[in-house]
Write a structure and sequence with these properties.
2 domains; 10 helices
Length: about 300
């Protein structure tokens, strides 16, 4: 460890994984290519007794990533608990998650550390997203930033945009540890989809969220490895659950804001939530019509 490394603040990268050793290999290769030296990396494996393949992958990177730890849970503790577990392992002031099927550009950590070091009131920082909907289907997405000094202005912008891109950005660990996800009501009690929105409003309430202007600072999200984005495939029941989940997300927004805002500010947040939900409902109306049409045609 050289003098420059000692002067750098420690960054912890938490990598949750579950039975995807080849994808994990790609994620660790991206971490090994970082131009930032003072990194500790923790891989938390939810595979239980079937985790030996992931352990072999991690062992192969022990030289390239000196501060690398592998932890295999004795049983699957669930995705959210695994994410929380990784955050609890962080020893340094900065922390980020990297899913086992995603990547980051070599300058990702260093660029975001510079942003956070430049503004003590910033809680998180993010780079650009590359959405991969197929091996050769790349889309560059500029993340929304929430740099306003006023917590109310940040929250209103966050509620309106519903942009959770900075979930996989770099966070001040002390602030991220104060964030929570209390869970959903019926019919989504067992669901974790969109949980990042609920978690991140705590971050927005507590500090600015900055975005790198450099397009080369990239988080590469391989959506096609775990999601089906084709329209018209959801049943009416699934669309109903999704609508209820989105309402639930906004109610949780309001409850969290209620602990830190006055009635007037809460009213503005609530009005923004209602407007956002109505616009989202209008956008999803064609899906509902398509699902009804498909159902009638099949009957």
């Amino acid at each position: 460890m050289g003098p420059q490394t000692v002067m750098q603040p420690l960054v912890t990268i938490g990598v949750p994984t579950f039975q995807r050793p080849e994808l994990l290999r790609r994620a660790l290769a991206a971490i090994a290519s970082q131009d930032y030296e003072n990194l500790e990396v923790v891989v938390a494996d939810n595979s239980g007794a079937d985790g030996s393949s992931a352990e072999h992958v991690v062992d192969a990177f022990s030289q390239a990533i000196p501060q690398l730890r592998y932890i295999r849970h004795s049983q699957n503790i669930g995705a959210i608990e695994n994410f929380r577990f990784l955050l609890a392992q962080a020893d340094g002031p900065y922390f980020m998650w990297l899913a086992d099927d995603d990547e980051i550009s070599p300058n990702y950590v260093s660029a975001l550390v510079r942003l956070l070091e430049s503004d003590p009131h910033a809680a998180a920082a993010a780079g650009h997203w590359i959405l991969m909907r197929g091996e050769h289907d790349r889309q560059l997405v500029r993340p929304s930033a929430f740099p306003q000094v006023s917590p109310l202005r940040r929250v209103v912008r966050f509620v309106w945009h519903s942009d959770d891109a900075f979930f996989y950005g770099l966070h001040r660990a002390t602030i991220l540890r104060q964030a929570s996800f209390p869970g959903y009501w019926w019919p989504n009690g067992a669901q974790i989809v969109n949980w990042a929105y609920v978690l991140l409003i705590d971050v927005v309430l507590r500090g600015k969220v900055l975005a790198s202007p450099d397009e080369s600072v990239q988080f590469i999200n391989h959506e096609y490895t775990h999601k089906d984005h084709r329209l018209g495939r959801r049943s009416l029941a699934e669309l109903f659950r999704r609508a209820m989940r989105r309402v639930n997300v906004h109610v949780l927004f309001w409850r969290k804001c209620a602990t830190q805002m006055n009635a007037r500010s809460l009213g503005l947040v609530a009005a923004t939530s209602v407007a956002s939900l109505l616009i989202e409902a209008a956008r999803n109306l064609p899906r509902v019509v398509r699902s009804i049409t498909v159902k009638k045609a099949a009957s």
